[in-house]
Amino acid sequence: MKSLIKPKEELKSLPLTESELIKRAKEGNDEAFEMLISRYEKKIYNLAYRFLNNEEDAAEVLQETLIRAYRFLKKFEERSSFYTWLYRIAVNVALRKLKKRAKESKVVSLDEGIPQHEEIPQEIPDETQNPEVIYKRKQIQETVQKALAELPEAYRSVVFLRDVEGLSNKEVAEILKISVSAVKSRLHRGRLFLREKLKHLIKI
User: Fold this and answer.
1) CATH of the domain at 39
2) How many domains does the chain divide into?
3) CA-closest candidate to residue 25, choices 60, 61, 73, 88
4) Are residues 38 and 97 in the same domain?
5) pTM > 0.85
6) Domain limits at 74?
7) What is the rounded CA–CA span in Å between residue 159 and residue 190?
8) Is residue 204 a contact partner of residue 130, using CB atoms and an 8 Å limit?
9) RNA polymerase sigma-70 region domain location, by residue (predicted)?
10) pLDDT tens-digit profile of 129-177?
11) Residue 203 neighbours by CB under 8 Å, 6+ apart
């Protein structure tokens, strides 16, 4: 007699597309959801870490992002890729954490320490590939990351999304829910702040 109960389907052995995994996850298949997030959780963690510069905070952002993705998956209309949708959730979660951190710390004027009539610096030129230069470049990258972490919160989010993540002004404006002109203004001031912090590294 043929069994009426179908054995549990092993999704990992099936050549399912992302769209098919999303469909199954929306239907309540937890294995499909786990397969989806396993593709991107490392990227989301790295995104959160670059944004917050703190391992514990990055882990919390990842956890909350995945919880929200699971909770609101049925509202995902697939107008963008799953990663883009997940990415936007992560950015918003990280921004809330930044705002909370800002409230808990001493309020600093957004204009403090920023030269008012400076040009945006040129990129540091890439000269050679010898070990000494590679080591120095690594030191420079660490210094830049530290300077980015010291940016006032409003500037950091714009500079991070625009210059580190490579989003357009319009995309940044949509994520932060501010105007494109505000993005341009904060980006300019953020870059000036970074130039002041990194002026010893910039060859003029």
Assistant:
1) 1.10.1740.10
2) 2
3) 73
4) yes
5) no
6) 15-104
7) 6
8) no
9) 36-103
10) 566 655 556 666 666 667 777 888 788 889 888 988 888 999 888 888 8
11) 124, 125
